[in-house]
Amino acid sequence: MANPLKLVSAPPEGVPGVVASAVYAGGRRILEIPIEKAGEWSRKPGHVVWIGLHEPGLDLLRRAQAELGLHELAIEDALKAHQRPKIEQYGDALFVVARTAQMVDGRIAFGETHLFVGRGYVVSVRHGASTTYTPVRERCEAAPKALSEGEDFILYAILDFIVDNYMPVIETIQAEVEEIEDSILTANQPQSQIVRLYQLRRDLLRLRNAAVPLVEVCRRLEQPGLPGVDAGMQPLFRDVSDHIRRVQEEIESLREVLAFAFESSLMTGQSQQNEITRKLAAWAAILAVPTAVAGIYGMNFDVLPELHWKYGYPFVLTIIAATCTWLYWRLRRKHWL
Length: 337
Hints:
This protein is α+β, with helices and mostly antiparallel strands and 337 residues long. The chain has 11 helices and 7 strands. Strands 2-1-3-7-6-5-4 form a 7-stranded mixed β-sheet, sandwiched between helices. Helix 7 (166-182) runs parallel beside helix 10, helix 8 packs antiparallel against helix 10 and helix 9 packs antiparallel against helix 10. It is rod-shaped and about 120 Å long.
């Protein structure tokens, strides 16, 4: 009889929504299976079924439910995909929701991952913007000793991967913020830059709301009493919590920088407007002199001072030029021009 650890099989035929469906024993992949065989293999001692789904329909989730006994409420949550990060216990099974994030066209796009974890199985359901978990599977398969810990290690590996993927998003935003900071005090600051600062600050708030609730999820996984989570795995979940707190600190720091940059942009814009206003007021004061004189001598009266004087016109022009020159000199000294 062939050793079950040596079994090799072709992957399940292309089923829409199924990314991978495999059986592991002793930390090694032994077989690719269809969903309809998941229940049978998950009940075998020492075996773990790891199924990856991407935006599955209700029919596919029902098939997985029938095989693995997934709770009805968890199925409803996994289908709707508009859940807050959380962990719920249904008998001997866990249902975990985590939010994923990645940069798409300069904005943070969010997705969701729902994890069904029970005795002998792990089902991951991805919705929206999310990096494939193929690297997680490959990394786990490259460390069979760790993977032999079972379903709780797979749960840890996926959560750790999700949290680690927050950092590239933060680093991308941080690089852009540094560029904006370098140009924040330059003249003629475009309005689009101020709009971009507001967008980044709002996206970071959404990222914070997606990441921080995972601290509570990992805190519960650190505590004894949850089914399927061995005491030896609790330090690993504590490490994920530390990573989330670091992400939170980076987000808060960036939001403070963005708030300062946003305020500086507004203050710079106001300063530029004040500078323009001062210049306009200064030139208006200078032009008020010839305007006043021309207005007076433009009145329709027969008797005006110096009206018939031979040198009246050049005299008035000289007075206007001298007064305007003096005003220009005074305003320049006061840095209004």
